[in-house]
Design a protein that fits this description.
The chain is of the alpha+beta class. The protein is elongated and about 75 Å long. The termini are far apart. Helix 4 packs across helix 7 and helix 5 crosses helix 6. It folds into two domains: about 60 residues, 2-Layer Sandwich (Alpha-Beta Plaits), CATH 3.30.70; about 170 residues, NADH Oxidase. It contains nine helices and eight strands. About 35% of the residues lie in helices and about 15% in strands. A four-stranded antiparallel sheet has the order 5-6-8-7, with helices on both faces. The chain binds flavin mononucleotide (FMN). The site of flavin mononucleotide has 9 residues, from strand 7 and helix 8. Flavin mononucleotide binds next to strand 7 and helix 8.
């Protein structure tokens, strides 16, 4: 049940909901009606586009949405966020407040997903003590692979071999960069775009994290570890029918950047015919 409800006292019969509905399942007969509940994408565009907040769907009260007029961020600030975000590889040895992690995840789940499938699972290590156990376990697994000559040839084996050495010799964690928290995204393999959905969700999480003063780093090294030790996937509680997205380490940064880097120009290929 999608619980589509129109407040007829508020509705001005402008038809915006009918025109905007990407699934074409709203028709205006005096007031808006849903013609095909099954076809509804549950995207809430009808609730969002209604100028008089007359439409409720999925039990959502439109008055509880944030009004957009006057509340959008200043573009220059967003540019600074995008250009000023840096991979953080030094972290304070402290937990982030759990409410802050929850807030970031709640925002990240607003990221777009193919066909609005919204199946992304956020597997999070939200306590430093748990992260430290995982860190120790992963390093022990890697050391075992190294000692038994099971690290692969090539750059993956070289990177991971160096990571084991750094951990054993100086307690330096190159895999998770000493971060107190970890986020791994996954999505059901039968979702229309599971891999893309997981990456977009992590990118959204990352930008919002930096806006809130939280450092992050995409964790390709941990992804390499997972490729060698796939039993880590159920170990993390990720369902068997999920496609793994990516991992991101995060926490309170112990480094401060003072200016943006200077990249570009963008590599552009203009299609002209
Ligand atoms: C898919 C992906 C995987 C990455 N994996 C790692 C990693 O395992 N360890 C690490 O320190 N940085 C990792 N990075 C961070 C990149 O090295 C970093 O984004 C790049 O050097 C640019 O620096 P910036 O993020 O500060 O702009 C990864 C980045 C991406 C996008």
């Amino acid at each position: 049940m999608i619980q589509f409800h129109v407040d007829e006292e508020r509705c001005i019969q402008c038809g915006e909901c009918e025109v905007e509905c990407p699934a074409g399942v709203i028709t205006l007969e005096d007031f808006p009606k849903i013609t095909d509940e099954e076809g509804c994408l549950q995207c809430q565009h009808c609730l969002a586009v209604c100028p008089t907040a007359a439409i409720s769907i999925l039990g959502k009260n439109p008055d509880e949405s944030v009004a957009l007029a006057g509340n959008m961020p200043d573009p220059a600030g967003l540019v600074t966020l995008i250009k000023g975000r840096r991979s953080v590889r030094r972290y304070k040895e402290e937990d982030l407040p759990p409410e802050l992690i929850d807030e970031l995840l709640d925002i990240a789940c607003h990221a777009p997903t193919g066909v609005n499938a919204r199946g992304v699972l956020f597997t999070v290590v939200n306590k430093r003590a748990v992260m430290n156990s995982l860190r120790t376990e992963v390093m022990a697994r890697l050391a075992k692979l190294k000692d038994s000559g099971q690290l692969p040839e090539g750059f993956i084996g070289q990177y991971l071999g160096r990571a084991v050495k750094a951990w054993q010799e100086s307690g330096m964690d190159i895999i998770f960069r000493g971060a107190p928290h970890l986020l791994v995204t996954s999505a059901p393999q039968d979702a229309p775009c599971p891999v893309q959905d997981t990456h977009i969700a992590l990118t959204t999480f990352q930008l919002m994290a930096h806006a809130r003063g939280v450092g992050t780093v995409w964790d390709g090294l941990f992804m390499m570890v997972i490729s060698l030790c796939p039993d880590l996937i159920p170990r993390l509680g990720i369902p068997a029918n999920h496609i793994l997205g990516y991992a991101m380490a995060f926490g309170a940064p112990a480094v401060e950047f003072h200016r943006t880097v200077q990249r570009g120009p963008a590599q552009v290929n203009v299609v002209s015919r």
